[in-house]
Specification:
Layout (H helix, E strand, L loop, with lengths): L3 E4 L2 E4 L4 E7 L8 E7 L6 E6 L6 E2 L8 E6 L4 E6 L8 E9 L2 E4 L3 E6 L1
Parallel strand pairs: 2-11
Antiparallel strand pairs: 1-3, 3-8, 4-5, 4-9, 5-6, 7-8, 9-10, 9-11
C-alpha cells in the first residue's frame, strides 16, 4: 500500500505560481505511474497531469498545457506539480495519485485558491 500526503497549496493572485508536493510512503513508489487531478466545488474531478513511473513521459490536458509541469524524484519518493500563470478557474482541491495495474491510491488533497 502507498500513502500519499500533498502540501504546498494556498492562496495566490491570478498570474502567480505555486508548487505542490506529494510525499509517498513505502519503497515501491518508483514502480507506480502517477499524476494529479483536481475538483472544484460543484464540478467533477478533472485530470491535470500524469507521469510515468520513471518520469520519462508526461501528459497534460489542454486546459493546463504550457502552464503546469509534473515531475518526480524517486529517490525522495516525491512527486511535484509546478503551476504557473494561475487563473481563477484553477481554484480547486488538488489531489495526487499513483497507479499500477489495478491498484490506485490518492492523497487527502490540498486547497489551491486563485484570486482574480
Amino acid at each position: 500500500q502507498v500513502q500519499l500526503v500533498e502540501s504546498g497549496g494556498g492562496l495566490v493572485q491570478a498570474g502567480g505560481s505555486l508548487r505542490l508536493s506529494c510525499a509517498a510512503s513505502g519503497r515501491t513508489f518508483s514502480t507506480y505511474a502517477g499524476g494529479w487531478f483536481r475538483q472544484a466545488p460543484g464540478k467533477e474531478h478533472e485530470f491535470v497531469a500524469t507521469i510515468t513511473a520513471s518520469g520519462g513521459h508526461t501528459y497534460y490536458p489542454d486546459s493546463v498545457k504550457g502552464r503546469f509541469t509534473i515531475s518526480r524524484d524517486n529517490v525522495k519518493n516525491t512527486m511535484y506539480l509546478q503551476m504557473n500563470t494561475l487563473k481563477a478557474e484553477d481554484t480547486a482541491v488538488y489531489y495526487c495519485y499513483v497507479y499500477r495495474g489495478g491498484l490506485k491510491y490518492w492523497g487527502q488533497g490540498t486547497q489551491v485558491t486563485v484570486s482574480s
